[in-house]
């Protein structure tokens, strides 16, 4: 099956700094890599995703990079703001883009004003 | 965009009773639905995958006789927690495949507390 490892488990940054969260996956058939932001007691919200035919995707302050050879992908948040504080999860599907979505253990990001 | 409605949003039940949670895709047909469980400060753990009209596929360690999943139509999947115990207290959330967002749309979750 798919094994998704996520690091770090907690991350504290100063407002305005950048934050980077990294994930590795094991299933070479995985070709879709989403990142979710989850606030306490709420559903995960998709913030950005990438497919395996591209190496990087950017959306304003958020970017995701993918290294399919090494089987890892990263979330980059620049110019962090206090409202970015949340738990972030990476995920990868087992068996292609329509498979079971397996989540990393999450990263609690704290942005200090 | 794709919307998945999940009900109830929270429920308190007594030990030994059963609780049914519904997951509906409102504006698209969900060929596959996934059920996750999330304990406090932990990640989402996949419990089972359900395809319309067929039996659910359960992940290792998840009791299929305790967590009954029915996916009778392309817009509705239900999870029934039978003979609930306090250790079943958790946040249960469904995800449907078939809408926008490259396929995965999450419900709002159900907070189950068993007393």
Characterization of the model:
- Chain A has 113 residues and is mostly beta strands.
- Chain A is built from no helices and eleven strands.
- In chain A, strands 2, 4, 5, 9, 10 and 11 form a six-stranded mixed β-sheet that branches. In chain A, strands 1-3-8-7-6 form a five-stranded antiparallel β-sheet, with no helix packed on it.
- In chain A, β9 (86-94) and β10 (100-103) form a beta hairpin.
- Chain A is globular, with a radius of gyration of 13 Å.
- The model of chain A has no long low-confidence stretch (mean pLDDT 92).
- Chain B has 115 residues and is an all-beta fold.
- Helix content of chain B is 0%, strand content 52%.
- Chain B has no helices and eleven strands.
- Chain B has strands at residues 4-7, 10-13, 19-25, 32-38, 45-51, 57-58, 67-73, 76-81, 90-97, 104-106, 110-114.
- In chain B, strands 2, 4, 5, 6, 9, 10 and 11 form a seven-stranded mixed β-sheet that branches. A four-stranded antiparallel β-sheet of chain B has the order 1-3-8-7, with no helix packed on it.
- Classes of the chains: A mainly beta (113), B mainly beta (115).
- Chain A binds chain B through residues 32, 34, 41-44, 46, 49, 51, 89, 97-98, 100-106, and chain B through 32, 34, 36, 42-46, 49, 91, 93, 95, 97, 101-104, 106-109, 111.
SSE arrangement:
The complex is a heterodimer of chains A (113) and B (115).
Chain A: E1 5-7, E2 10-14, E3 19-24, E4 32-38, E5 45-51, E6 56-59, E7 62-67, E8 72-77, E9 86-94, E10 100-103, E11 107-112
Parallel strand pairs in A: 2-11
Antiparallel strand pairs in A: 1-3, 3-8, 4-5, 4-9, 6-7, 7-8, 9-10, 9-11
Chain B: E1 4-7, E2 10-13, E3 19-25, E4 32-38, E5 45-51, E6 57-58, E7 67-73, E8 76-81, E9 90-97, E10 104-106, E11 110-114
Parallel strand pairs in B: 2-11
Antiparallel strand pairs in B: 1-3, 3-8, 4-5, 4-9, 5-6, 7-8, 9-10, 9-11
């Amino acid at each position: 099956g798919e094994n998704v490892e996520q690091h770090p488990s907690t991350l504290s940054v100063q407002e305005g700094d950048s934050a980077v969260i990294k994930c590795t996956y094991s299933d070479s058939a995985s070709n879709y890599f989403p990142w979710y932001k989850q606030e306490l007691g709420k559903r995960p919200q998709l913030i950005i995703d990438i497919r395996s035919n591209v190496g990087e995707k950017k959306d304003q302050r958020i970017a995701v990079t993918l290294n399919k050879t090494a089987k890892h992908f990263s979330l980059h948040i620049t110019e962090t703001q206090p409202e970015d504080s949340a738990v972030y999860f990476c995920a990868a599907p087992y068996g292609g883009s329509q498979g079971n979505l397996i989540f990393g253990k999450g990263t609690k990001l704290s942005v200090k004003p | 965009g794709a919307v998945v409605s999940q009900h109830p949003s929270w429920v308190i039940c007594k030990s030994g009773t059963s609780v049914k949670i519904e997951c509906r895709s409102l504006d698209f047909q969900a060929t596959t639905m996934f059920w996750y469980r999330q304990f406090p400060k932990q990640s989402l753990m996949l419990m089972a995958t359900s395809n319309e009209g067929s039996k659910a596929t359960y992940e290792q360690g998840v009791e299929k006789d305790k967590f009954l999943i029915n996916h009778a139509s392309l817009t509705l999947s239900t999870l029934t927690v039978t003979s609930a115990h306090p250790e079943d207290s958790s946040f249960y959330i469904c995800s449907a495949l078939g809408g926008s967002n490259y396929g995965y749309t999450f419900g709002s979750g159900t907070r189950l507390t068993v007393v």
